[in-house]
Amino acid sequence: MASSPEAAKAQRHLSRRDPKMRQLIRQVGPFGLRPQRGGYRMLVRAILSQQISVAAARTIRGRLQAKLPGGRFVPAAVNALSDQQLQAAGVSAQKRTYLRDLTERTMDGRLSFRHMSRLDDEAIITELTQVKGIGRWTAQMFLLFSLGRPDVFAPDDLGIRNAMIRIYELDSDVQRTILEELAECWRPHRSVASWYLWRALDQDIASTQYPV
Predict the structure, then answer these.
(1) What is the distance between the alpha carbons of residues 72 and 62, in angstroms, rounded to a whole number?
(2) DSSP code for 204
(3) Beta strands in 35-164, from DSSP E residues, in sequence order
(4) pLDDT the model gives residue 75
(5) Residue 198: which of 190, 208, 187, 188 has the closest Cα?
(6) Closest C-alpha to 165, from 157, 36, 92
(7) pTM for the whole structure
(8) Is 18 among the catalytic positions?
(9) CA atoms within 13 A on the CB side of 90
(10) What span, in angstroms and rounded, lies between the C-alpha atoms of 66 and 58?
(11) Quick one: DSSP state of residue 131?
(12) From the candidates 18, 101, 151, 157, which is the catalytic residue?
């Protein structure tokens, strides 16, 4: 989707509908999200990253990849690892349970990424949240970063929440319903809007730069 006609269309839509988003797009520059194929790999990484720092997750991921042929997260290869090997890589007992469930469901066909790609967003979320350790937020990130779905909005994402609080000058305890209402005018391009919100945090863009 990056630098595609669809992205350009989304930028024009957001700029017309929301002055603050128009200014953000001008400051951040071209849209640059490229979906990362490999649904199983993406979900493994998401599970490993839960409730720990980025640095710690990167370390554990590296240790785990060192135990896999070619360093690739493939269901059969992960399934072949013992609990002792997973533990030695730094994978907690709870996350081992999550990885086992994800891997087993992928191998026996209960979770089919090819099948899911043909479903609508909510149906995919329903399927993914049947896996232990995968909640709605993780499923939404899968939709956005793996499948490249165009209209994903995750109001419970801390980055999106913090960016909207800053840019739209909201109370720190703003309700998620308010965020959802603000995002309505972005449809059907909320994924692009979300990407720009994350970039606003990356670039430390202040709310005072945004027109009312």
Answers:
(1) 11
(2) T
(3) none
(4) 97
(5) 190
(6) 157
(7) 0.86
(8) no
(9) 17
(10) 12
(11) S
(12) 157
Residue showing tokens 């995750």:
154
Cα 73 from chain centre: 18
Domains annotated on the chain, with CATH: 5-34+152-209 (1.10.1670.40), 39-145 (1.10.340.30)
CA angle in degrees (0–180, nearest 5) for 79-70-129: 40
Q: Which parts of the chain register pLDDT below 70?
A: 1-3, 204-212
* The predicted structure's pLDDT at residue 211: 33
Measured at the alpha carbon of residue 109, what is the angle toward residues 80 and 78, in degrees to the nearest 5? 20
Pairwise CA distance, residues 108 & 111, whole Å: 8
Report the phi/psi class of residue 17: left, alpha or beta, with left for phi > 0 and alpha for psi in -120 to 50.
alpha
* Interval 58-86: pLDDT, tens: 999 999 999 999 999 999 999 999 999 99
Buried b (16+ CB within 10 A) or exposed e, 177-194: eebeebbeebeebbbbbb
Q: What's the CA gap between 149 and 173, in Å, rounded?
A: 29
Nearest to 152 by CA among 128, 175, 168: 128
**CA distance linking residue 183 with residue 192, whole number of Å:** 11
CA angle 19, 138, 88 (to 5 degrees): 135
- For 21, other C-beta atoms within 10 Å of its C-beta total 27
Exposed, middle or buried by CB within 10 Å (0-12, 13-18, 19+), for 173? exposed
Q: Scanning the structure block, which residue is given the tokens 């703003």?
A: 174
